[in-house]
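Notes from the 1:1 (GR / supervisor)

We went over the backlog. Supervisor wanted to see one worked example end to end before approving the batch request, so GR pasted a single chain during the call. The sequence is below; no edits were made to it. Supervisor asked that the structure be written out right there so they could see what the output format looks like.
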Amino acid sequence: MSRTRIDQLASKYMNHDMITLHTELPEFPKGRISLLYTLLSHQPLTASHKDLLSVVTTLVQMGLDTHDMVENASGAAEVGTQGMRTQQLRVLAGDYFSSRFYHLLSQAGQIETIRRLSEAVCDINRLKMSFYSKLNQMKLNAEEYLHIGAELRSGLFLSFTSIMNGLHAKLWPDIVNRFSRCELLLQEIGRVERTSSLADSWGVWHILQEGSEEDRRLLADGKEDTGLLKSLLLKYEVVDKLGALLRQSTSQLQTLIQRLQSDKLMKELQPLLEPFLNATGQQRATALKELG
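Structure output shown during the call:
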C-alpha cells in the first residue's frame, strides 16, 4: 500500500467540515502505519484485514495525537474565546476519531482487536502521565526523553505482536520501537533547524545534563527565551549529536530488518528508511563541506 493510499483510506473516516475548517490536526503517522501495513501483509492471519487494521490504528493514533495538542487550561485562557473553542474542538476531534475506530472494528466483528488497542491506549496514557510529571519536575535526562518518546510512539503498534508469526513476532517490538526512535530523532532535528517548540526538546535536556553549571542555570531560568536556546543549542552542537544518534538508530534498524530473512520484505521496507538515510546523508555532506 502506498502512503497516498493510506491517506485516502483514513481520510475517508476523518474528514469532517467542522474539524477541517476550525482546527489543525497533528501530522499523519505515515511511517509507522506503512511499517505496520507491510508487516501485516506478510502474516497469514492478518493479510486479508490489513487495510482495516491499518486504518483503525491510524484513527486511534490521530485521536491520541490530537488530544496531545490540547493546551492546559491556563494556556488556553491566555488566547481568548477563539483559543478555547479551538481547544474544545481538538478534544472533540480526538473523541470523534476514536469513535470511528470502535465503529469500524465492531462492524467487522474484530472485538479482540478493540480490546488490544484499548489496552494499549490505557498503557500509553499512563506513560504520558509519568512523562509529563517528570517534565514538570525537571526530573528527566536526554536518553529518558528519547526512550519514553519512542515508547509513546510505538505503543499502539506493539499491540499487534501477538497476531504475528514466528520471527516476525520476535523482531516486531524492536523494529517498531527503533523505527519510532528514528522518527523522533528526525523530528528533533527539524525542531532545532526550524527553531520551533524548543522549550522541551531533546537539546534542552541534553544541555541540562551535560552543560556547564552556568549554562544549566541560564537554561533553567530562560527556557522560553528563544534567542538563548538557539545560542546554547549551537554551542553544544545539538544538531550534530542528534544526527549521530539518528545514524546509530538507523543502522540498528537496518540490522533488525535484515534479520527478518526475507528479501521481498526488506525491499518493501527500504523506502520507509529513506527519510532517515537522507537526513543523515545531508548532515554528513554539510559537515564535510564545512571542513573543506
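Supervisor's comment: Confidence is low (pLDDT under 50) at residues 72-78, 287-292.
Batch request approved.
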